[in-house]
Amino acid sequence: MIDDLEMRRSVEELRLTFKSGKTRSGDWRKAQLRAILRLIQENEDTLFRLLQSELGKHPVESYRDEIGVVKKSADHALTYIDQWMSPKKGRLPLVFFPASRKVLSEPLGLVLIIGSWNFPISLILDPLIGAISAGNTVVLKPSELAPNCASFLANILPSYLDPKAIKVIEGGIDVSNQLLQYKWDKIFFTGSTKAGKIVMAAAAMNLTPVTLELGGKCPVIFDCLPNSDLKVAAKRVASGKWGGCAGQACIGVDYVIVEQKFASTLIEQLKKTIKIFYGDDVKNLKNFSKIINKGHFDRLRSYLEDPAVANSIVYGGSFDDTSLIIEPTILLDPPLDAAIMNEEIFGPLLPVITMDKIEESIEFINSKPKPLALYAFTKNENFKKRILAETSSGSVTFNDTMVQFVCDDLPFGGVGQSGFGRYHGKYSFDTFSHEKAVLERSFYLELEPRHPPWSTFKLEFLRSAYDYNYVRMLLLLLGLKRPSNP
Questions:
Q1: What pLDDT score was predicted for residue 468?
Q2: Distance (Å, rounded) from C-alpha 484 to C-alpha 139?
Q3: Phi/psi of residue 332, each to 5°?
Q4: Contact status, residue 297 vs residue 323, Cβ threshold 8 Å
Q5: For residue 429, which of 26, 16, 21 has the smallest C-alpha distance?
Q6: Chain segment 366-377, per-residue pLDDT in tens
Q7: What is the pLDDT, as a whole number, of residue 382?
Q8: Which of 340, 341, 315, 338 lies closest to 328, judged by CA?
Q9: What are the backbone dihedrals phi and psi of residue 312, each rounded to the nearest 5 degrees, phi first?
Q10: How many Cβ atoms sit within 10 Å of the Cβ of residue 297?
Q11: For residue 23, what is the DSSP state?
């Protein structure tokens, strides 16, 4: 574990680097982004092996959710960074003439990025790309629950990125608590709501701005669909539930709401899809990630120890203690007061909740904390409008799951207990920047008041405004023309 002195020296070195102005250079930013691309390209096979051993991720999944995400983000930033850095000019009211205004995006300073274990590469390097693009110095704190990936980043990043501007600090909760004692110019955290509260409390001591990427119970509203659409929708639900780290994803499907008369049809199609995608033997599942550790494995198993919950299982429910694998499991109408329906599942257990009418799903979702993502499979345009107007969530995706995460032109972030702040693409650049307003006026065409005040202004407070500065500011703020003498 890093000691206090070494940590303090690292933080001070990063502050000095930022004060030097080095990271404000567009050339420096681009060089770091290109280095991230080289790092990924030259270590792709190593990353595949690490993610396979740490989380059981298939190479296709690793590329889709980790390596490909980082490549895409770095390429996107390199394409648009000059545009993002350019001052934004605009018009001013005529009363300011002659004058100019612009908005400058300047780096915040020293940034702390705390990553999560479920996507241990992309959830560290993706926000790093935004922080670098904006010109900050950065401390990265990878999750200790994926120690091999954390060690890889700590060992390899100094060979590619500027070690005086970007540092990786490994360790557990104690190290995170140490880091939170320092004054940062921005903290970016990805993780649980419980840990997010600790981060926010620490940041409040120094009025440090934070971005919290948390999670929650992300629902799927599944409307009645014709058979051809049903097959496609079932594949997308299965992918959104079990394809992303075996359900250990903040934007993964948590539960499905469906009309009672349509539930059996949906469940049968999900069963068929599971067998095609992953197989039906817990000992020989293919393309399926494992649970991160024994603690999380036991937590998920505890959900099914409630007899009423266990009785609701209609598919799966098997565990492999040796490999930490839990097979895809479907539950039909588990008790709504059970833990599985009131805590974020973060695993391969899928409750299916039935209702008489699908429109009742809106009230059900609104009775719970706001989710990070809401998914709805429907062809009913009026129902879509109701979902958008009557629910609140970090994002809404119609007729698919999780794809919003890879759209650089869409902001990614939560609302309420699912977090706040946003990133991806230009939104990442903005998250790690301060937009500074700059107004420049000329000394010419100055307006002079007359005494006594113009009689057309009847308000008493204006009658006493003989002072030059009062009148001058009133003219500027109100944008009024000088009236003619009576």
A1: 52
A2: 62
A3: -105, 115
A4: no
A5: 26
A6: 999 999 999 999
A7: 97
A8: 315
A9: -90, -5
A10: 20
A11: G
Among residues 66, 245, 250, 344, the one annotated as catalytic is 250
Q: How many CB atoms lie within 10 A of CB 76?
A: 19
- pLDDT tens-digit series, residues 155-201: 999 999 999 999 999 999 999 999 999 999 999 999 999 999 999 99
The strand ranges marked E within 308-369 are 313-315, 319-320, 325-326, 329-332, 349-355
How much is the pLDDT for 464? 46
Return the closest-CA partner of residue 237 out of 373, 363, 80.
Answer: 373
Q: What is the pTM of this model?
A: 0.90
- In residues, how long is the chain? 486
- CA angle in degrees (0–180, nearest 5) for 63-67-68: 70
Spatial neighbors of 195 by CB under 8 A, at least 6 apart, are: 189
Tokens of 209: 């701005």
d(CA 50, CA 146): 9
Using the predicted structure, report yes or no on whether residue 151 has a pLDDT greater than 90: yes
H or E element, residue 397: strand 396-398
Preceding peptide of 452 cis, ω within 30°: yes
Which candidate, 114, 198, 115, 210, places its Cα nearest to that of 420? 210
- Is 250 an active-site residue? yes
358 contacts: CB under 8 Å, gap ≥ 6: 221, 222, 223, 224, 257, 258, 259, 378, 383
Question: Which residue among the candidates 54, 213, 259, 327 is catalytic per the annotation?
Answer: 213
Residue in 392, 401, 386 with CA at minimum distance from that of residue 370: 392
CB 183 within 8 A of CB 206: yes
Q: What is the pLDDT of residue 2?
A: 75
Side-chain half-sphere exposure of 383, counting CA atoms within 13 A = 18
